Amino acid sequence: MTRRNGSLIAFATLTTLCALILCCYRVFPAGLRVLHFVPHAHAQTVSAVVVHPRLALASSLSVPAWGDRFGDGTPDFLRLTDPADQAAFRRWFTLIAEYQTVRPRAEVPSEIADCASLLRYSYREALKRHDESWFQTSGIEVPALPGEIREWSYPHTPLGTALFRVRPGEFQPADLSNGAFAQFADAKTLVERNAYFVGRDVRAALPGDLLFYRQFGQSSPWHSMIVVRSASATEVVYDTGPDHGQPGELRRVLLAELLDHPEPRWRPLPGNPNFLGVYRWNILRGTP
Questions:
Q1: Phi/psi at 149 (nearest 5 deg)?
Q2: Distance between CA 126 and CA 69 in Å, rounded?
Q3: Distance of CA 49 to the CA centre of its chain
Q4: pLDDT at 43
Q5: Mean pLDDT in runs of 10 for the chain (288 residues)?
Q6: pLDDT value, residue 288
Q7: What's residue 266's pLDDT?
Q8: What is the phi-psi region of residue 147: left when phi exceeds 0, alpha when psi lies from -120 to 50, beta otherwise?
Q9: For residue 144, what pLDDT is reported?
Q10: If 0-12 CB within 10 Å is exposed, 13-18 middle and 19+ buried, where does residue 41 land?
Q11: pTM
């Protein structure tokens, strides 16, 4: 074989290879699209969706995590699936909420002004990394560390600081940037978009669960309480909210006292129409 013939063969091979690469790029533009699997019970197909830039933050997550298997608006990448993570979240959430009831009011974070803000603060802080900087900033003291959530930490998710669902509907990738999630959510939104109904029997409540009320006729009818202990000495904590221009009070009471409240509308009993029931955070859904 002459040198010229060899050059012609090499050129022809290179031309063929370039043509194949160009063909594959046109058919499979992997740089532009990915397959999106929707593992909901009613999902029948696998479709292609444009990758949102913020999805790059979670490149290590599996594709099914972008679904919403319960159809409650919470993406699966936020759900805590490890029992150890679930337990750690419950311990931090209750510890942080309860701590606010024993510290001087002047030391309570200024953002805590009613029952919903106590939920938001305790929820968000429970999902953070609790390092030395966190303890210095929060001013919280604990007798023993509850353990860390390993699956993810706030705000290091594709949602960033927008932690709470504020719009109805199942989770869609577009929700990452269309305002479906926000840093703020009132009590009504917390119960309707970020938690799910467990039952009306308070004996089913676990530490970290929520009691919700709707007091008809009030300017702020939605109220919430946090269960911080269960079993025979069940306790709840809550913020009473502003009253006639005066700041509310942070309280910790035994469930037994609440069941015997002088105003029947505050008793967490199935027969009380003002008591909506026991609720649990969506990130714990599908777990005990």
A1: -75, 125
A2: 24
A3: 24
A4: 33
A5: 49 51 39 30 34 46 70 96 96 97 94 96 98 96 92 96 97 96 97 97 96 86 94 91 84 95 96 97 85
A6: 52
A7: 95
A8: left
A9: 87
A10: exposed
A11: 0.77
208 neighbors 283 (Cβ within 8 angstroms):
no
Q: Given this model, what pLDDT does residue 143 score?
A: 85
> Residue 206 corresponds to which tokens in the numbers above?
């676990």
Residue whose entry in the numeric block shows the structure tokens 């002047």: 106
> Is the separation of the CB atoms in 33 and 47 below 8 Å?
no
pLDDT of the residue at 248: 86
Instruction: Residue 241: count other Cβ atoms within 10 Å of its Cβ.
Output: 18
Query: For the stretch 252-287, what's the b/e string if a residue is b when 16 or more beta carbons lie within 10 angstroms of its beta carbon?
Result: beebeebeeeeeeebbbeeeeebbbbbbbbbbbbee
Kindly list the domain boundaries of the chain, sorted by start residue.
3-78, 85-284
Question: What does the pLDDT read at residue 211?
Answer: 98
Query: HEC states along the chain?
Result: CCHHHHHHHHHHHHHHHHHHHHHHHHHCCCCCEEEECCCCCCCCCCEEEECCHHHHHHCCCCHHHHCCCCCCCCCHHHCCCCHHHHHHHHHHHHHHHHHHHHCCHHHCCCCCCCHHHHHHHHHHHHCCCCCHHHHHHHCCCCCCCCCCCCCCCCCCCCCCCCCEECCCCCCCHHHHCCCCEECCCCHHHHHHHCEEEEECCHHHCCCCCEEEEECCCCCCCEEEEEEEECHHHCEEEEECCCECCECCCEEEEEHHHHHCCCCHHHCCCCCCCCEEEEEEEHHHCCCC
- As a whole number of angstroms, the distance between CA 100 and CA 224 comes to 15
